Amino acid sequence: PKKKPKPRPKPAPAATQLPPAPQVTAQNLADGQSVDGVVDWRAHTIGAVARVEFVVDGVVLATQTAEPWATTWDATNVAVGLHHLEVRAYTKDGRQAVLAITVSR
């Protein structure tokens, strides 16, 4: 009797490659810096970034959808003391990177 040929294994599905995760690599404000008045705030990113948010004490100050990632912040609108600042970068598929610092006024 003839042997039946062995069934061929199904090819594995091609892995879907996600673009690299976003990264916030730098911003012009430094952790521990003292700020006052109108502050020029800029950030640098790498990866497929669709938008960047500039956040002060948990509140989104500005959202940018194209480079350069920059905004101005009037620090006189916050109380004297320590403030938590974040630059959040997002990809189109919702992944995010955050660079956080604390500044004083």
Describe this structure in words.
This protein is mostly beta strands. The chain contains no helices and 7 strands. The protein has strands at 23-27, 38-46, 51-56, 59-64, 69-74, 82-90, 96-104. The chain has a 4-stranded antiparallel beta sheet, with no helix packed on it. The relative contact order is 0.29.
Query: Sheet with the most strands?
Result: 4 strands, antiparallel
Number of helices: 0
Which sequence of SSEs, written as H and E, runs from N to C?
EEEEEEE
- Tally of DSSP β-strands: 7
- For the CA atoms, what is the radius of gyration? 23 Å
Low-pLDDT sequence parts: none
Decide which structural class fits the backbone.
Answer: mainly beta
Question: Assembly type of the shown chains?
Answer: single chain
Instruction: Using the alpha-carbon principal axes, give the shape.
Output: rod-shaped
Distance between the termini: 89 Å
**Average pLDDT over all residues:** 91
- Biggest β-sheet: strands ordered side by side in the sheet: 4-3-6-7
Task: Please bin the fraction of helical residues.
Answer: under 10%
Measured by DSSP, the beta-strand proportion falls in over 45%
